[in-house]
Each structure stands twice: as C-alpha cells, then as structure tokens.
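User: Could you check the structure of this?
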Amino acid sequence: MPAIDFHRTLPGYQPTPLRDVPALAAELGVGRVLVKEESSRLGLPSFKVLGASYATARALAERFGLPAATLDTVRSAVRGSTVRLYAATDGNHGRAVAHVAGLVGAAATIYYPPGITEAAKKAIGAEGAQAVEVDGTYDDVVARAAADADADPDAVLVQDTSWPGYTEVPQWIVDGYATLCLETDDQLAALGVAGPDLVIVPVGVGSFAQAVVSHYRSSGADGGTLLAVEPDRAAGLVASLRAGKPVTAPPGETIMTGLNCGTVSALAWPVLRDGLDGAVTVSDDQAAAAVGDLARLGVDSGPCGAATLAAARLVLGRSGWREAIGLRSDAVVLLLSTEGRAANPVPEGRV
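Assistant: Sure, the predicted structure tokens are below.
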C-alpha cells in the first residue's frame, strides 16, 4: 500500500495547510511564498508521524507475517504480544513513534539527549512511552537505542536515520514523508501553480530532505531549485558537501533541536549530494526571528520549520545569488515548515 493511501486510513487524517503569505513575497522580492505548515499532523505538532506511522506498520506487518500493513491488521497482530518499539530522538520523531505505539497497542522505549526541551520530554512521556535520557550527542543516543534494541528479542527499532545493515525501516520512513510532497503537489495545482521555482527544506539526519529531493528529482514534479538548511551549530550536511564525502560535524546547542544532528543518514547522503542545488546554515537568532515573524503572519512554525524562512532571507538577500539560479521576480518559493511552536517552544525572550 502506498504511504499516502495508508495515511488516509488513519483517524483524523487530512492534508495540512499550504499557506500563501503575500507579505513574505513582497519582502523577498518574489511572486509568491507558500508555506507548508506542519503544526497539526494526525494529532501531533510535527510532520514526523508520517514516517513513523508508515514505517512502524510496515515493520510490524513484516515481523508478524501479515499480508497487508494496515492499522487494523497490525493492531490485531500486536494484541497479546510483547513487542516493543525502540527509537532515538531529538524531539519529534520519538514522540511520533510513541504515539503510533499507542495506536497499535505496543510498548515503546524512546531515548533522547539532555538538550531537548522539557516540553518535548513531557510530551514523550505523555504518550505512554518509557523515556530514557542518554548523556551525549544525538549520534550517541542513536547508538544506545540500536544496542538496546539489538539485545531485546521483542524489539522493533524504528529509527529515522540509516547505517550499514540498517536501511529498510529508514527507507520506509522516507516513503512515509512522501505523503507531504504529494499533498503539496495537489495544493499547488489547486492554486494554478505548475511547480515551485525554489524549495527550501530543513535537514537534521536528512531523511525528510531525501524524500523531498527524491520527489522533485525523480517523479516528474517540477521542483526548480532545491536548497537545504541546517543550524550553524549542527551542520553535518554542509560539512559533508564541502568534504565530498560523509563526515560528522559535532553538534552544539541550538534551539533547532530537531535538526541538532551531526551525521547525515547513509541512505540520504547520495540523494542529497546529487540532487540538492545548495545548502546553507542559519543561526538561532535568525531562526527565532523567523518564528516570531511567521506567527505574526498567521503561520504556526517552530524553529526547525522557520529555519526555511531564515534561509530564504539569507540567500535572497545575498548579492548575485538569485541571478545565479535564474530566480525571476515572479518566482514561487515553497518553504517546508516541519513543526509548530508547540513541538519545540522557543526559549522565552528569543522571539
């Protein structure tokens, strides 16, 4: 079952809004700025549940030998079992896995680093998961979750990054994210827009960006220029692109906690290397300002999602950049905002 067909069967499914923001178009000197707002997705304040739900259903269907990965068949198979979902997170993915565990009746253990917000920690616990804080970076947390899952015969690891020997579930997560792209295509068509001239996507481990680049580079959709954005304190993709090979950039502290990852997913790397037109970094101050400005314009975006506006301001204000990519004054710019403010509250005094 294609991911979007699976998602349409979930309780409360509906496409998230595509916001037309004329004030930003005027500011940036383009024809139109459209923001895909993921502040409320299947009951959660971020897009992550798209990947977590589809990958969990596929993984559990495979584990139990089910003919189809539907919510009902998976829930029936899980009933009476001791299966447990494991995941590492820097906020939104872990909560999404915990939420899906509740939907299907499975237990869940979610690992996270100390730097995520208190709100994110409480949200994971509120979903009924066992929450484990791991001292170290996001990469350390992933390693711990994978090791614990490997030691548990009842475990299913639902991780949104990949490494040699662990690729199937991360690819299903990427496939799940494709629903967002297909929704956006339909919404653009309803507005009479053939396709965006510039798409800006935030990058943590890169799985969402992998879905976006794959969609626009291989499906026939016209995505124009594709630009990635990372925090300046966690720029693993930019470092890898500069090196011409995957490298780890030790992450620092950032309010863009969902992007605070130092190593690009092994599956994502070749897709991003070959499909992106560029990648930039933004600061916490730039992301925080974008959160506040979007809120005043009626768009609910947390700092990870608002990083796309910060990137647009950076590159479109840079002399010669828009000329280099041939961005016309009537161009359509698509900003992919991956979370609402509730998912990752900006610290008081930063907005």
